[in-house]
Amino acid sequence: MLPVVALVGRPNVGKSTLFNVLTRTRDALVADMPGVTRDRHYGFCRLGERHFVLVDTGGLADSDEGLAGLTARQVELAIAEADVVVFVVDARDGLLPTDQAILERLRRTSKPMLLAVNKLDGLDESVALADFARLGVANPMPLAASHGHGTLQLVKAIETLLPAGEPETPSGADEGGVRVAIVGRPNVGKSTLVNRLLGEDRVIVSNVAGTTRDSIRIPLERDGRKYTLIDTAGVRRRARIDDAVEKFSVIKTLQSIDAANVVVMLLDANEGVTDQDAGLIGHALEAGRALVIAINKWDGLKTYDRDQCKRSLERKLTFVEWAPRLTISALHGTGIGELMKRVNRVHAAANAKLTASDLTRALETAYAAFQPPLVRGHAPKLRYAHPGGTNPPTIVIHGSRTKHLAESYRRYLENFFRKRYKLEGTPIRIDFREGENPYATRKNVQADGQQRRRPRAPGKAPRGKK
């Protein structure tokens, strides 16, 4: 197992910036305002000889009420599992009473600790470090995380405090299994569903809409299969987004959809399908991702409300009729097992292995059953097909006059292939290709015999005779 290092400190001292620098990623959301990070964010630092897991945490505030208290609970869990704690302070703000209170909490844990004095760029280093000498921590580490200054020295200092053992390489550090992105509008129960699947309070759950701001990736092993759950921020209508942090959260949510293998679209049964839900589903379709539609909070609905919700689903989701739908309760765990079965099923369909010979036979059967409409008096010819990729399944069809095929015939072929190969829950892309005419650029020159036999106007003498 790789050792764990936790970054701890007040809000807005630069923990997420330092996390991104040490992990050489942009996974943590960074903004010049306090309270952006709330959940634990994990990454891998490979800068030194000893690789370790790095944990970015939310800022510890003076209050333990509301979201601040939930964030503090996540920080405590990170400290409990850490082998080394890096206490990050802000040199520009100087030593504050909150810093002293945090240090007292860290000393009670008896964890090996380093003091990192951040944001020293433009300041006198000796004066800034002298201000924190009252904390009684030996060898404070000067840092300017935004510029990368002092990070290598910090890594070397961390290595001296790591548990003894042979240097390990993060062979299992890369994400494994099926990447499942859970997306939806704010307050539909995404974080509750993630916690229910994990069996622990891994991410913060609150009735306040927009609690989750970053996309959190969490490994999960269930029934012998590995997954990577991606808890995303809720996406509202663009007209209602006026906060820069929320805009970046939406961008990271859309990026998570692109990076996922399967997208679980979580809907609120009390509200049915909104235009924003349809927009998120449309983005998943454009990305070619397998899709499962889960209707949450179903257990609290009356019979009439359930019927209204079903009608809304049938009316507004006709463009994804192939996506499986199921009702769940993330709070009570109803339908969770069936949800993961559907995830496995659609992932298998999205990565189905198709062969050129079988696709060609299927194409001949579909063409014989229903031929495409005529194009300028000629029927388009579909000659053969072969696979063009997976996730989503892509079928390449070669023929003539394919550029003029009606969109309805494309849908007919898509439904035919979906039914034949049982491709549930995944979009299908059909790429028509037409061979070039080798005589398109050649001039049609007639022979002398063709010239003589060519019909002439009445009274006109043949060429060469008068």
TrEMBL record:
<feature type="region of interest" description="Disordered">
    <location>
        <begin position="434"/>
        <end position="466"/>
    </location>
</feature>
<dbReference type="InterPro" id="IPR015946">
    <property type="entry name" value="KH_dom-like_a/b"/>
</dbReference>
<keyword id="KW-0547">Nucleotide-binding</keyword>
<feature type="binding site">
    <location>
        <begin position="9"/>
        <end position="16"/>
    </location>
    <ligand>
        <name>GTP 1</name>
    </ligand>
</feature>
<dbReference type="GO" id="GO:0005525">
    <property type="term" value="F:GTP binding"/>
</dbReference>
<dbReference type="InterPro" id="IPR016484">
    <property type="entry name" value="GTPase_Der"/>
</dbReference>
<comment type="function">
    <text>GTPase that plays an essential role in the late steps of ribosome biogenesis.</text>
</comment>
<dbReference type="InterPro" id="IPR032859">
    <property type="entry name" value="KH_dom-like"/>
</dbReference>
<dbReference type="GO" id="GO:0042254">
    <property type="term" value="P:ribosome biogenesis"/>
</dbReference>
<dbReference type="InterPro" id="IPR027417">
    <property type="entry name" value="P-loop_NTPase"/>
</dbReference>
<dbReference type="InterPro" id="IPR006073">
    <property type="entry name" value="GTP-bd"/>
</dbReference>
<feature type="compositionally biased region" description="Basic residues">
    <location>
        <begin position="452"/>
        <end position="466"/>
    </location>
</feature>
<feature type="domain" description="EngA-type G">
    <location>
        <begin position="178"/>
        <end position="351"/>
    </location>
</feature>
<protein>
    <recommendedName>
        <fullName>GTPase Der</fullName>
    </recommendedName>
</protein>
<feature type="binding site">
    <location>
        <begin position="184"/>
        <end position="191"/>
    </location>
    <ligand>
        <name>GTP 2</name>
    </ligand>
</feature>
<dbReference type="InterPro" id="IPR005225">
    <property type="entry name" value="Small_GTP-bd"/>
</dbReference>
<dbReference type="Pfam" id="PF14714">
    <property type="entry name" value="KH_dom-like"/>
</dbReference>
<feature type="binding site">
    <location>
        <begin position="296"/>
        <end position="299"/>
    </location>
    <ligand>
        <name>GTP 2</name>
    </ligand>
</feature>
<feature type="binding site">
    <location>
        <begin position="118"/>
        <end position="121"/>
    </location>
    <ligand>
        <name>GTP 1</name>
    </ligand>
</feature>
<feature type="binding site">
    <location>
        <begin position="56"/>
        <end position="60"/>
    </location>
    <ligand>
        <name>GTP 1</name>
    </ligand>
</feature>
<keyword id="KW-0677">Repeat</keyword>
<keyword id="KW-0342">GTP-binding</keyword>
<feature type="domain" description="EngA-type G">
    <location>
        <begin position="3"/>
        <end position="166"/>
    </location>
</feature>
<comment type="subunit">
    <text>Associates with the 50S ribosomal subunit.</text>
</comment>
<keyword id="KW-0690">Ribosome biogenesis</keyword>
<dbReference type="GO" id="GO:0043022">
    <property type="term" value="F:ribosome binding"/>
</dbReference>
<dbReference type="Pfam" id="PF01926">
    <property type="entry name" value="MMR_HSR1"/>
</dbReference>
<dbReference type="InterPro" id="IPR031166">
    <property type="entry name" value="G_ENGA"/>
</dbReference>
<comment type="similarity">
    <text>Belongs to the TRAFAC class TrmE-Era-EngA-EngB-Septin-like GTPase superfamily. EngA (Der) GTPase family.</text>
</comment>
<feature type="binding site">
    <location>
        <begin position="231"/>
        <end position="235"/>
    </location>
    <ligand>
        <name>GTP 2</name>
    </ligand>
</feature>
